[in-house]
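hey so i finally got around to running both of the ones u sent me last week. sorry it took forever, my laptop kept dying halfway thru and i had to restart like 3 times lol. anyway pasting them below in the order u listed, first the sequence line then the structure token line for each. didnt double check formatting much so if smth looks off just lmk and ill redo it

first one:
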Amino acid sequence: MHGYTSNKDAYLKRLRRVEGQVRGLQRMVDNDEYCIDVLTQISAATKALQAVSLGLLDEHLKHCVAQAAAEGGPVADEKIREASEAISRLVRS
């Protein structure tokens, strides 16, 4: 079981909302909307995805990494490395 399982419905709802935002962006471009308006909506969709990412990362740290750290050994080292790499990717985005 993954750490986010208990909040799966909330994550899916948020992702569906982002999906709707992206479809709206496609319509805006198709309708030749004003550039700044499109960019504003892109920023909103990006922030929404970042919020989902941070929530998933938090769940991963609380569940997967904490459990592995309690057990120790190479599995713990691997989970911590994975989390560090995920954080690095998020910071760069």
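and the second one:
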Amino acid sequence: MFRPGAAAGRRLIKVILADDHTVVRAGLRALLEKESDLVIVGEAGSGSEAVTLAKATRPHVVLMDLAMPGSGGIEATRRIVALGLGTKVLVLTALPQETQLCDALEAGASGFMRKIAPIDDLTRAIHTVVEDRLFLDEDAARLVVLQRYRRVGELDDERVAADRLSARERQVLGLLALGYSSREIARRLALSPRTVDEHRARLKDRLGLSQRPELVRFALRTGLLAEPGA
């Protein structure tokens, strides 16, 4: 698929807009269609419609509102991720809340930002999640840190498992959850890619986690997502 005027060599990114407010969808469409590498392939007014559209159009990204009729955005996110299409869900919300953030990320969302964000930030977020990276705006990042401190005293199985990891394994896990490759992690932590791969293998053996949504959930619940490179 090619759109006239699209930047040469750039992949066209298919986007679904999921929001129960027609005016919001119209505004997003008008702004995003000005980007040469973005194309809106559908609009949904409910979570179930978003899931149906995702099955039919196989988009790269769904811009997901959380407060929609029916099952809502959280359940829709979970169902879209479970389809295994590689579709990324970027949550757009009016007022970010800690419970929303945690539920969305645990459902498999790849990003979280406010609706009032500038269009440049939104397009940057879309490109970030398409590259299989986690995107959190400043408000969401603060909520992640807050969530870490609120959970730090919980003696659940995940916390115990995290405490058994070495400092380096904790760093590697946090960066994997954010979507960094072995080579990128090696560069950030001054390690060889082979050493990073060895850490990845041990993490999989110890925790039974290999897919990024699983890593995100574990890192979020245990506080490792807050400061992965510290």
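quick thing i noticed on the 2nd:
The chain has eleven helices and six strands.
anyway thats it, ttyl
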